[in-house]
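Example record

Each entry pairs one chain with its bound ligand, NDP.
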Amino acid sequence: MSAIIINGKEYAAALAERQAERCGELRRRGVEPCLAVIMVGENPASAVYVRNKERACAKIGIASRTITLPEDCTQEELHARIDALNADPAVHGVLVQLPLPARLDESAAQLRVKAEKDVDGFHALNAGKLMQGIPAMLPCTPKGVLFMLKNAGVPLDGADAVVVGRSNIVGKPMSLLLLRENCTVTVCHSHTRDLAEITRRADVLVAAIGRPRYITADMVKPGAAVIDVGINRVDGKLCGDVDFERVQETAGWITPVPGGVGPMTVAMLMENTLEAACRA
Ligand code: NDP
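Structure tokens for the complex follow.
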């Protein structure tokens, strides 16, 4: 039996309709939701991501501002731009597009964004709130994954969940969100011994590794929900961290790459921007 494909693109499209309505409602009340993105230099991959965000904003009716700073800008100049957007009441979400050039301090830039406008959910205050179970701006990718799991009807309460990857933007917040849903969570990383033995126990398996097709069918419990966060390029084509073709034969649910977690990440960024505009 083959797995149910969790189609992130379809979920994101349905969400966009509802978000457009909410945005219209806010505009009628005199609030024009606005997302500002700061980009440093001309990283081609970042430029594509920023364009996708602008398109998503335009579709929903969110105003977007993109500020491109020169490659050689200083940390102080970057912070001055962030400060100006923090202070601007017409801007509800502020995002610093990563990666920054190596000589700039990414964590310092992220901490500089006002927590209320931190629509990426990367600020330490928001991360701390998530850890303590206080309502917070949640990081978009894990938030999108949880949305997909819930909407696909994957049972979470009491489930064994395994998250492969422990980054601050995906793995760690993902594990906290699953814990909040009463999963029994195991977090794996590059030092984990016998990864396959652990992943085979997972009812819910989230792969956020960044290695093409690393999770193979023999590592997956039959009937498990397999969420593939990875975005890798092999011979010019996108693929995830999961061997989709083989794993879909045994999994209960699976997300494709592209068309799975990626569109949901952008959808959750729109959601966070609308939430920030509502609160403002
Ligand atoms: P990071 O590189 O920050 O983290 C990767 C994690 O994978 C680390 O915790 C690392 O362990 C772990 N890891 C690496 N190799 C192995 C291994 N052999 N076995 C077990 N664990 C391993 O990546 P991100 O979390 O930022 O992103 C992960 C992937 O998700 C990337 O492909 C990225 O492009 C993609 N991504 C996709 C998004 C989307 O919207 N779909 C959004 C964000 C990211 P250790 O900590 O020990 O080094």
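The chain has a mean pLDDT of 97.
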